Every structure is written in C-alpha cells, then in structure tokens.
Amino acid sequence: MDILIRSRCRPAELMHRIEEGVDRERFSLWSLSGYAGGKALLGKFSEDRFRLQVRRSYKNSFAPFFYGEVRSHDDGAEVSGSFRLHPFTRVFTGIWLGAALLLAGVMTVSMLSSGRPVPLPVAGIPLALPAVGFGMLWLGRWLARKERSLVVRYLEACAEPNTGTAKPGEHRTAIDSSASRGFGAFVPEWLALGARRLAALCWDSVCPGLFAVALRLAVHGSSAMFVHTPGFMRTVWAVWLAYDVGLTLQWRKTLGKSWAQLEIVGSDGKAASAPRMVLRSALKFAALAPLYLLGPASWASFVGVAVDVLPLLAPELRLTLHDWVAGTRLVRSPGRSRLADA
Q1: Predicted pLDDT of residue 53
Q2: Which domain CATH number covers 23?
Q3: Strands (DSSP E) found in the chain
C-alpha cells in the first residue's frame, strides 16, 4: 500500500518534524528493543528519504517498515512511501517459500510415483514445509497489525501546519500498490511472474496429493499410503484436471493462482472465454500426462513439460505453449483500492 500525505509546510520543515519525533536507529545492548532511546518510533534518514519502524521489545523480522520520501508539492510538501518488509527479509522469505513449495511438489509427485508404502508422518512433510513458512509470515504480521496505523498517524501529525483547520486524514490518499510487494521489487517483471507461476503450480499439486492420501486411507488405512498403478495415477491426473477446469471456469484462477495473485485473461487483457480456458487446461495437462503416467524415472516423461515451457524463454512471447495456443495469458490480479489502517 502506497501512502501519500500532503502538507502546507516546506519540505525542509516537514523533514525536520518527522526526524525530530523519532529516535535514530542506533544499536544498544542496554535496551530491550536493541536500539538506543525511548521514543515509540525509530528512523533512518538520508537527505529527503527516510525509513520508520515501531520500537518493540521483541524481535519481529516480518514487521513492516515505512519507506518514505519528502518532496515539494505546489505551495507545500508531501510525504510519499509504502509499507514493506526489510529487503533481506523479503528476499529470504521469497527463497524459503519458493523452495518449500517446489520441494513439496517434487515430494508429492515422487511419493505418488513410488511403489513403496509411505508412512503417514512422512506423507505430511510436503504440507509442513510451506505451512511453516506461511505460519511465520502470518504470525509476524499479526503481531505487527497495529503498527501501520501508528506510523500513519504520526506522519499526519507532522504534516499538520501550525495554523489552519486541516484535520488528520483530509490530506491523505492511500493507493493499493501490488508492485511494492513481493518479487516485483527486486527482479524483472517476467521473472517475478515466472516465480509466481511456479509457486502456484506447486501449491495446486498438493490438492491431488491430498485426494490421493484420503483415497488411500479410506481403502487401505494408514499402513501404506500410496500404490503406484496406472489406474491410480490416471485417477489422480483426472482429478487434477477437473480441479483446474472447474475452478478456472468459476473464478478464472485456481487456489494456487489465487494465493500467488494470478488470474487468467485473454490475449487482449479482457476476461477469457470458457472455451479458451478449457482448451488451456486440456493442453497443459496433455503436457503433464507423460510425467504422471510414466513417472519421473524416464527422461521421456519430461518431454511434454519441456516443450510446453520452452516459449517462456522467447522475449517476444514470455508465454507457455498452452497459453499461446489457447490465446490466454497469466497476469497479476488487480489490487483493491483501500485506505490505510488509521
């Protein structure tokens, strides 16, 4: 979320007000927060740019920082910026969740393709890996749920002129900004979109895996989780196809795509028609069929997937084969305009 706060103060005066009310980020061994001073907010300043965070007596790497800039505007100044995680935390979280989802998808396919019994605790590992990452992210954001409003109220108070009748909130505009979050702030757009596609695919692969677990438990109990037979693998493949087609027709996205903030549109950017979405799913699962029916042991299983993703490497396309043929493409879901918590 981007924040825009306007003031009738001069830029230098507004920057001085912001800096005056916070403690600078100076490390201290004698403070529970790890920083010297006792003010509620901590800041780091550089000319017309600054960073604010709330002082806390515990470590929370997933708490938001406000990255802002003071600049002149008409007869006054304005503060613009956004709340986001520390760059190191964002990169680490992206790597962790991407690797966890990829490993979960690989383990699910491997266990489905194995002829050996898999104990129930081992079968839960693919779900536990991404669950831990998402759980840490959720807990950190929940603990810091009131910090955004505290920073915004402070900036509004700094922007108030010494005279006049302006009220807090009258000069603030908040705009949802998807580009200020996730991979898009660090890597090219096409690479960020590819990472989201991969994460969505791994997440969606868990759903057929859960079906396989439930089916095996119902038939054979917990002593043996999976059986590698052509009929069983075809069933799992068909369920995944039905899941993909059903949710795509209903919401233009699967659960994985919804989590990754992706949706399917036509090549013109408008809503894709039902026949195009069905064709897209059919082509995608035709490419996955050798991998599911032959298993990952043979190199021939990966031919369909390789052919399908090869057009992604072409700069003028950046599309999978099934998207290119069906006349569809994956795009970021539009954000919802909303005011900041205040």
Answers
A1: 92
A2: 3.30.530
A3: 2-7, 23-24, 41-46, 49-54, 65-73, 76-84, 172-175, 262-266, 328-332
